[in-house]
Design a protein that fits this description.
Number of strands: 0
Radius of gyration: 18 Å
Distance between the termini: 32 Å
Strand content: under 5%
Structural class: mainly alpha
Number of helices: 5
Order of helices and strands: HHHHH
Number of domains: 2
Shape: flat
């Protein structure tokens, strides 16, 4: 197996490369964050729903998006793209989620004897 990282542009560069590769099953694209590109990347050259086939669920994670000032526009864009209103949570729920995740990572770092440089 050869891993070729192509970072940049919120993985648009890697997705574009993968979408243009021969559809022989030897080139894979992994990115849990790429699903946000239709919202945040103007003129995105790759339509992930048309360019790729799902092979497997590799991981599952929660995403949080923090918005200041333009919430009505974000909701309208989500409704336009997906046909439904986004599901949200209160700031208190978001704070608890962040604390829980940071606590889990802190425990992992302590178990691995991680020392910041």
């Amino acid at each position: 197996m050869v891993v070729e990282a192509r970072p940049g542009a919120n993985l648009t560069i890697a997705a574009n490369f993968t979408a243009k590769a021969d559809p022989d099953g030897y080139t894979l694209f992994y990115s849990p964050a790429f699903v946000f590109n239709p919202i945040f990347v103007k003129n995105n050259p790759v339509d992930a729903l048309k360019a790729f086939e799902t092979v497997s669920i590799v991981s599952s994670t929660e995403y949080m998006m923090f918005v200041t000032g333009k919430l009505p526009e974000v909701i309208a864009q989500h409704r336009k793209l997906f046909g439904v209103d986004p599901i949200g949570s209160t700031p208190e729920e978001g704070r608890r989620t962040v604390e829980r995740e940071l606590g889990a990572w802190g425990k992992l770092a302590k178990m691995a004897n991680f020392q910041p440089q």
